[in-house]
Design a protein that fits this description.
single chain; mainly alpha; two-stranded antiparallel ribbon; 14 helices
């Protein structure tokens, strides 16, 4: 005779499954994500302590300790790439946030054609960065690019070698390209967040004769602070990994004026096949971006209550 399972045990198992069902459903995705992240990082960490160039052999040639790290930090092109990456990340994120917020505030106004504007605004973010790079490469063309012609028409001096060919303007041109593509991302997300701000609070502030600037700084921004902090962090990390646009527009040139960490990793890994050096550069990049993001999150959320 088969013993029956106690009803209390069955009920307990059902209760356990019910309580932990969300975690059980996302567990496979989390495990897959950890595998896709952990293995490459551990592989890069091990490889960073070896001299390993695929042009010489398929296996690591010699254990060199921290030599790859010292070589990366002392290389002028890596330092230039780090500087350019930090400039693009901080300046680009700040400008895109300010411009996106300004556009979001305009979208809140009941102006004619705003429905069409909202629909068109998402289009730049749907285009692949490679395609955007080719588009702006033609727009910047010194022989007849639209943007070059417009700047010349306004009387601004344009280098003879073009905007992308001069070290003084190339990084600005790359930055403008990214701003064009990703400012709508900030505008759309911030616009959706501003729609959630209770209208009663704003009306009460207006009755108290609060200015538009005061309403923005004291009411709207504090209420969408968490959303703003998160999208700024996500966009900063994306900009820190800039590669596609640089590859198409300038290939890191002229000289090292637009070289980024992402492009340096591509060059050392997929052109020079220097696996040991590129692994060390990868870990340096990971440490830098994690330190910056950790400090940002600490100071941004230290007074927040969840």
């Amino acid at each position: 005779m088969i013993a029956s399972v106690p009803k209390a045990a069955v009920k307990g198992r059902r209760s356990f499954v019910r309580r932990n069902l969300p975690y059980l459903l996302i567990a496979p995705s989390v495990l897959m994500l950890l595998a896709l992240i952990a293995y490459p990082l551990l592989f890069a960490l091990r490889s960073s302590f070896y001299f390993w160039n695929l042009q010489i052999g398929p296996e690591p040639q010699a254990f060199v300790g921290f030599d790859n790290y010292f070589q990366a930090l002392n290389a002028f092109d890596f330092r230039d790439a780090l500087t350019n990456t930090l400039i693009l990340s901080f300046v680009g994120t700040a400008l895109e946030f300010v411009l996106g917020l300004s556009i979001a505030l305009l979208l809140l106004r009941a102006l004619p054609g705003m429905n069409v504007v909202r629909a068109l605004l998402i289009l730049p973010t749907t285009i692949a960065p490679i395609v955007v790079g080719f588009l702006f490469r033609y727009l910047y063309d010194p022989g007849g690019g639209l943007l070059t012609w417009l700047l010349k028409s306004t009387g601004l001096p344009i280098p003879a070698e073009g905007l992308l060919g001069s070290p003084a303007t190339a990084l600005v041109a790359v930055l403008f390209t990214d701003i064009w593509q990703w400012t709508p991302f900030f505008a759309i997300v911030l616009y959706a967040s501003l729609l959630s701000v209770p209208e009663e609070i704003i009306e009460a502030a207006r009755l108290d004769r609060a200015s538009a600037w005061t309403i923005l700084m004291r009411i709207k921004l504090p209420l969408i602070k968490r959303t703003a902090i998160i999208i700024v962090m996500l966009r900063f990390m994306q900009l820190f990994n800039t590669f596609d646009t640089v590859l198409v527009l300038t290939r890191g040139g002229p000289g090292t004026s637009t070289r980024t960490l992402g492009y340096s990793l591509y060059e050392q890994g997929l052109i020079n096949f220097n696996i040991g050096l590129v692994s060390a550069m990868t870990w340096i990049t990971v440490l830098i971006v994690n330190i910056i993001v950790a400090l940002y999150v600490f100071f941004a959320f230290r007074n927040e209550e969840w």
